[in-house]
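Troubleshooting: if your tokenizer reports a length mismatch, compare your output against this known-good record of 364 residues.
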Amino acid sequence: MKIKEIFPILEAMAPLAYAEDFDNVGLLVGNQENEATGVLVCHDALESVIDEAITKNCNLVVCFHPILFSGLKKITGKNYVERAIIKAIKNDIAIYAVHTALDNHPEGVNKIFCDALGLKNTKILIPKENFIRKLVTYTIPENAEEVRNALFNAGAGSIGNYDNCSFNSKGIGTYMGNEHSNPEIGERFEFVQGDEIKIEVTFEKHLESKILKALFQSHTYEEVAYEIYDLKNQHQNIGLGMIGELENPLNEKEFLGMVKEKMQSEGIRHSQFTQKSIQKVAVLGGAGSFAIKNAIQAGADAFLTADLKYHQFYEAENQLLLADIGHFESERYTKNYIVDFLRKKILNFAIIFSEENTNPVKYL
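Known-good structure output:
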């Protein structure tokens, strides 16, 4: 199995199209044509993790955080990023990052966070915008079912918990072919008027080329009439953060104690207690200060995230309990999920859980 043959499996878990525009995901280092000897899954692809990959005969490191995030003009080994990259290249080890591609996935980082806390009735906190497009096309009634099914099979027509969604309306189509045409119905220079079906479907924007290929292959016309629109609709199943409910409400101190235990946090910084019970909980793994207002608007009793600054604790406004449980801690179980996913899909070589603790934050 070549390294590149593992990528579709990783994309099934964390589609790169789901990643934020600022992010750097996918293959960061290495030759995808090499035969895979093993996969080491880690949180951060530090130099010590590359050493571990060498020792355990793994030539693909799948990391959550991208070790290469911003551009490098020189690679001289002067810092931890450059040293890790140099060692990986020297030892022919590929590095693949998932980061916000998994953050935005409905079964990804924040669902894992919710599951660790036992939250029920979960939904996306900040649905992804500018991600849905709409295809409109026209064909004869006899061809409509074939076209619809081809579009559905290519990934169009999924809305929330429903698949094979489309809208179909009847109308009259007209055309006249010129000397270069080869019409399926009628002759050149003949004005043709006939019944047509207008088919409308939505799709995730990264599927556009696949869907157009399916349209052209299934359509009976020589020239396929179609339109594509960007929609303002939010994608309710993809996005950052998540909100859910505890089975039984807890007071604030009990709640934070439970979070500390289940997320193995060595210290929690939090805003002033509101003196309200906690049942509806919003979470966002990693740095999530930008989502404080979203958590308040969603009616959360508490918002768990990381990397909050001093003044950001004021933003709780006594409307919810705001807690910083630690960046690493909020994403703690992500690599467990990646390992479990890959072990179910890949059986012919080892998928190894990194034993390196790459959390840079220490507590007294």
